[in-house]
Amino acid sequence: MIDQADSIRFEAGDLALNFLNTLGIRRGRPVDVMASSIQLQQWLGAAGLGWPPACGLATSLPAAREALHEARVLREEIGHAVQAVIAGDPVPVTSSYAINRVLASSRISLRLEPGEDGLRIDERETGSGVLTALAPIALAAAELLADANPSRIRQCGSAGCMQWFLDTSKNGRRRWCSMARCGNREKANKHYAKTAQLGVSATTPVLGDFVQEATGDLSEDVRRLHLWKVPDTRQDDEF
Predict the structure, then answer these.
(1) b/e map of 189-200 (b: 16 or more CB within 10 Å)?
(2) pTM, two decimal places
(3) Are residues 41 and 109 in the same domain?
(4) Mean of the pLDDT values across residues 219-236?
(5) 118-125 and 164-166 as β-strands: parallel, antiparallel, unpaired?
(6) For the chain, how many structural domains are there in total?
(7) What is the pLDDT of residues 191-211, one digit of tens each?
(8) What is the pLDDT of residues 73-101, one digit of tens each?
């Protein structure tokens, strides 16, 4: 079993893409970091969001379940929208509606508060609906879709990894969600394949726990997300 803490990763460089990465494949197995309302709450907390007090999600089980449903809908529609932008297609109407619906739930008030270096303006979320907790994610998605260079929105180049990331590198040649994990694993396997082809005993072992392609035991959500995998035709080995 993959530990929840191990599954929560913020490597995409963008809140909306990190949200998409809550669904994917880890160690050759499907993982949904939002499999329950408790896990959703844990992810929001790790992202620095949490339940807005006015929502009542921490004390109302029905509200928490509704928030989980809404989170999954938002995640799927953000995924469709990202795919459309990358392909140069119009964002689906259903995706725009889903994002705008969550954005409309946001109610932000500004307050002048004392800070470490003097006064600062503090933003406070005052919305009361279950969608309020997801509003920062919807805002991040809207900003990504409107402002980001589509060619910089990518999926990891590792064959069995589906993690998204925003390439902010200077040369724009980043290939991996994590160089320490997928990058090194792919390089090790590439080295092994090359030495095996030459008939030389490989001195560098293939890193264990290699992520394999998804198989038929995937849930429908993971299967659908796997179909989003963007073919990687780059030949460089940049991070």
Answers:
(1) beebeeeeeeee
(2) 0.72
(3) yes
(4) 50
(5) unpaired
(6) 2
(7) 455 666 666 544 444 433 333
(8) 999 999 999 999 999 999 999 999 999 99
Tracing tokens 């995409």 back to the chain, one arrives at 12
> Tokens 């929502």 map to which residue?
55
The answer to whether residue 53 sits within a structural domain is yes
